[in-house]
Amino acid sequence: MIFGLAILLCVEGYFAFRLHELSEQQEEIKTEYSNINNITFGLFSVEQWRDKVSGIVDNQIRDFSLTRKQKKELRKEVEQTVIALIDKAEALVNKPKKTLGGKIKKFAIKTFVNTDKIRAQAPEFAETILAKVDNKGNKNHLSRMAMSKFDSLERAEYLDSTVAATKKVTDKVFEKYRVSSTEQLNKVLTSSLGRIKTATYSYSFAMLGCIAVVLSVWWIFRKRVDLHATLFIMSLMFAFILLGVGLTASMIEVDARIQTLDFMLLGEHVTFKNQVLFFQSKSILDVVSVLLGQTAIDSVLVGVLILVFSILFPVMKLSATGIHLLSGKRIAENWIIKYFAFQSGKWSMADVIVIAILMVYIGLNGLLQSQLSSLNIKSADLTVITTNNTALQPGFIIFISFVLYGLILSTILKFISPHDCD
């Protein structure tokens, strides 16, 4: 039995190690994903807007063309403008001159320039101007001019810090995953997260399967008093593994994002996808660490309370039960050992933490769902679709299992203890 349980304990330890490792890996990948797709580097990025708008302007100029009706109307407008300029020039020439030089210029122009002939050429001028406007080479030149203006934005002083910060973050992540674009990176990270999620839940349920086997062994050998002490100590080791994973693995994940934002600009679609508004993934130890690192005394006090009553008390309780069962009567009935073994449960807040996290999840999920749904817009000109990916993580399942398993062990101890339990 000891050999079998020892093997099972090693198996559960391996599952716990892999679960903890994958939980950290998942948090790291999701943090990198949220950084790359953060709204700061997307919807709020001047560089992103510059690229999208410059592409639209480039397409608009290169694909610019006039219909027959537009050409006819524009030709008429150009002719009228040319004729108006000729009339204005002729009026200036015919204006009385006071100086000798002015009179000579007037005489020369009236002698050598035939304004009626120039007016007759107005349609030809208009046709030439239209041909220049619709010329492919000229449109490419205009496109290059427009693009040079957008490219100059990259050198603007007020963009230097933002562009540099964005490039530093993206280049580092691109190099790590050996990709060259955000689209490729998102595919790689999404695929990795899918595999990790499946694996973490598999390891979680495998750990619970190990606990179920231990409880089954208790039921099978419930009448073998000579095996109870050994079996209980082995059971405590399983409990410590559950507690370790439950405290360090991610328990809740808050993820709010704009899934799609699409609108029309100059007749073309401008689209931003997977814009992360907020992301946080925390374990119980992470929460304690954050609270203890605050300057506000009330936050530090809450952190200390969680540390003492939800972490230290369960550890002391498990240790005290083992000492009580294995030690002689004098040590076993020591009031400190007895207190932690049988009476500290009413002070432990592990079960309270479970309820608190569940209530926080329900509250946050409802609040985010309500706020994000108010951002959803669907019209001909603008489409906004939000998504709330807030979810409980495997660490929560493991911690609940530890709390329930601890209650069962406390009940078992009261039946098998050879010492006074009061």
UniProtKB/TrEMBL annotation:
Alphabetic keyword roster: Membrane, Transmembrane, Transmembrane helix
Residue spans crossing the bilayer: 201-221, 233-252, 300-326, 347-368, 396-416
Pfam families for the chain: PqiA (PF04403)
Highest rank taxon of the organism: Bacteria
Record bears the keyword Transmembrane: yes
Name of the protein in question: Paraquat-inducible protein A
